[in-house]
Specification:
By secondary structure, this protein is α/β, with parallel strands linked by helices. The chain contains 13 helices and eleven strands.
């Protein structure tokens, strides 16, 4: 039965969105295998961001350089900063996008916004500056044109993340768990509908909100999650397959490094969100 509620409305319902992502993720083996591969590949283009190239902490530089083995595997790596991002958006988009970018009040938010612009235009692979590469090959993720996203689950009671194995392989579930997808990594062809919806949604929220917008829901994982749910619901309405792949093994490829120096000051978006 086709819902009478607009997909965009359902995608903004937090309870519905979490449950819908849970179903997608816990049935990801079916989703990932039922796909007719179209012609084409995803560009082997790794894009990363650090807001100030003149103040790049050594520990962050080490994370960035951990990806250098990809150079010998045919990847091109590009590092952007605030200045080069503004030039990029000006050249490839326009005044509306520049205005939205100017409303991004924190480096993490500007990074969130920029990755959507770049991946929409070029496709490729975005990964955060606090991630380190394990060395495991993952070329197969670039051999078809599905958007690859990493699922996450947060437990409101324990105030901690749930291990991937628990909510994917074991398919556990608790009422206190919130399911969503991360905006890191993003592995995508150019002009993927989820990225396009997410960028348009971020523009609307940033331009409509004259106050300091919430980072997570406006440009971060909350935005990408809502956009992904909207897209899959639209696919269901049209009886079309979703061009999507759920990454359940990302921790084997990359590790988020927590004890980095910048996390102790206002460069850490979590401290800004908490008002510290």
């Amino acid at each position: 039965m086709i819902s009478l509620v607009e997909p965009s409305t359902l995608a903004n319902d937090h309870a519905f969105r979490s449950n819908y992502i849970r179903q997608l993720v816990q049935c990801s083996s079916n989703l990932n295998s039922t796909y007719e591969t179209p012609k084409g590949t995803i560009p082997k283009l790794l894009v990363q961001y650090w807001h100030d190239p003149h103040d790049l902490p050594p520990d962050v530089r080490s994370c960035l350089e951990s990806w250098s083995p990809l150079d010998s595997l045919g990847f091109t790596r590009i590092l952007f900063d605030d200045e080069s991002v503004a030039k990029y958006i000006s050249q490839h988009f326009g005044d509306r996008h520049l205005k939205a970018f100017s409303r991004c009040h924190h480096p993490a938010m500007r990074c969130d916004y920029f990755r959507l612009c770049f991946i929409l235009m070029n496709g490729g692979f975005y990964v955060d500056a606090d991630e380190t590469y394990s060395g495991r090959h993952f070329d197969d993720y670039f051999s078809d044109r599905r958007l690859k996203v990493h699922p996450l689950c947060y437990d409101k009671v324990t105030n901690s993340m749930v291990k991937t194995q628990a909510f994917v392989s074991e398919r556990k579930f608790s009422e206190s768990w919130i399911f969503y997808v991360n905006n890191n990594p993003l592995i995508s062809p150019p002009n993927h509908p989820v990225i396009r919806i997410a960028l348009n949604r971020a523009n609307r929220l940033l331009i409509a909100n004259s106050q300091r917008a919430d980072i997570q829901s406006t440009t971060g994982p909350g935005n990408v999650t809502a956009s992904l749910v909207e897209y899959v619901l639209l696919c269901e309405q049209e009886n079309e397959p979703s061009n999507l792949y759920i990454l359940t093994d990302w921790e084997e490829i990359s590790t988020c490094v927590w004890p980095l120096s910048y996390r102790n000051d206002d460069r850490n978006w979590r401290l800004v969100n908490l008002g510290k």
